[in-house]
User: What shape does this take?
Amino acid sequence: MNLTMTILSTTIIPLILITLNHLAPKTNPNMEKLSPYECGFSPLENARLPLSIQFFLIAIFFLLFDLEIALLLPIPWALNTSTTTTTWMFLLIFLLTLGLAYEWNQGALDWTK
Assistant: This one.
């Protein structure tokens, strides 16, 4: 009974969705909707426009601090097990803070150069 209901639901639901898709009214796209949009750049210009290094730096900073959050997220559960976890946590936070201070001091975070 359970397997039969699973097979029926996995075949009937997609068939209903496909039928509804074919019965839905077609849209009338205009030229503006059909033109490609590339993040504010005109698709008809040269594809090799110079891109500011600031975009890459911000992306790297985002990935770095996203990784930091992923590494520090399980810390509350691990704090009960040993003191080495606390040492590594503070070392990681110290190194990331030191790197952030260095980048800030070098002007990498100054967007309006």
Observations:
- The chain has one domain: 1-106.
- The domain at 1-106 is CATH 1.20.58.1610 (Methane Monooxygenase Hydroxylase; Chain G, domain 1).
